[in-house]
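Thread title: Can someone regenerate the structure for this chain?

I was given the following input by a collaborator and told the matching structure tokens would be attached. They weren't. Posting the sequence so someone can regenerate them.
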Amino acid sequence: MSKELTNALVDARKAYRLIYLYQKNVLSTVEKFAQEFAGTFYWWTPTEFSPPPQRGTDIMKRWAWDLLPLYSIAILYMSEGGQSTEHSPGEWLLSFQLITDSAFEADGEEPNPTTFTPVEESETSMIVSL
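Best answer:
Regenerated them for you:
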């Protein structure tokens, strides 16, 4: 194996470990915040692309972004005892929207991260709404 390929694979393993730690931290933060409101998990979805495909889906026909579901997500919690189909007065929804990289812009074509603005010039944010 070439030194270049070996280095690339080491970088990939480092990147996946960092992604895991980042996602674990995001999920932990959302969970702690939702517990403060005694919320019940309701729903989640990626916001900029499709959810991860089912195992029978040909992933070669999907965006690679579809395999990175926590890159940009929305997570909803509802008040304890709330009904997902019929909301009553006094019930609430707690919404978390994660934007990992403000440079991501979907315009119908699969975004290419090599063309994004430098990471130092973009931002990460979590918008929390009740």
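The chain has a mean pLDDT of 91.
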